[in-house]
User: Fold this.
Amino acid sequence: MDKPFVAKLRRIDPYVPGEQPQSDTIIKLNANENPYPPAPGVQNVLRTFDAARLARYPDANGRALKSALAARFGLRPTQVFLGNGSDDVLALAFQSFFCSDLPIVYPDITYSFYPVWCDLFRIPYRTLPLDDDFCIDLRDYDAPNGGVIVPNPNAPTGRGLTLDALDDLLRHNTDCVVIIDEAYVDFGGQSAVPLLETYENLLIVQTMSKSRSLAGLRVGYALGSETLIDTLEAVKNSYNSYTMDTLTLAAAEAAVRDEDYFQQICRRVIATRERTAEALRALGFVVSPSQSNFLFVTHPRKDAPAIFAYLREQGIFVRYFKLPRIDTYLRITIGTDEQMDRLLDALRSYL
Ligand code: PMP
Assistant:
């Protein structure tokens, strides 16, 4: 029998991220990482960084990085919040804004971290079903709620909402905080940034893990009104003043300042995605329209777990979710053209 203290411990089902096999020989298409390196300026920061600077605490307010992000988005630095990856930003946003007794709402098929934070922070929630094409019915979001979180584009489906749809969502949800999780927006989605002028209750969360090739550095940020950003800062400063380290702040700033490189690799990923989607359809896969750096696919006659296992044996890692409504699907991250050719060859052999 367990000792009595065990009954007093927190019980929770954690989020399980995609596998991170430590091998250079596999083709890793399971965590929506970018196949290209970060902007050259990031390498330069790493090469020239003076370790003596690490003796001091970092700038708790991350002023230089906030200024770079504010300039990029046409906002004030006071409208930018920084975090240790967007998971950190989202977790703080859940704690800062979802404090009502009413349930928060989000799609039934979405980023599987949301229910984990709700459990951890004891936030009531209700999921709203996507239709059979994985589209949101905006009218489902018209009822009173404790807050809204929607990824745009959604994960793991890749489907995006238009700016008009986002405006509609916000127009019908002015009494709560609406979080748009834009982790994948740079791969062809429509950002809600233009709506920040109108909606003080809108928080946009973005990450440098995907379109800026910095998953290993851990940088996320939120954009919103001063009212929301000040609250996030207060909650963060009640928990850990220094979520961002000095080296990360410098490297992330270099990434933000290289707009040309950023645009170039996003375009490359999008082109590879479109070519791969077409090739997968030619092989009989049903491919959801994607505005992200991954494809969500199913085959009408082949079992998804079996394809997943076969690819794994070939050293190609994709993602399979054993979850209601999507357990016949695979999520495939867009790699380089060469990696996607290897994937397509393996699928041809399997089929
Ligand atoms: N939001 C969504 C929808 C995601 O898929 C991810 C990646 N797992 C994140 C946020 C978090 O990304 P990160 O913490 O690397 O910024």
Q: What stands out?
A: Residues 259-282 form the longest helix (24 residues). Residues 85-87, 111, 151, 155, 181, 183, 207, 209, 215, 220 surround 4'-deoxy-4'-aminopyridoxal-5'-phosphate (CB under 6 Å). The CA atoms of residues 60 and 132 lie 45 Å apart.
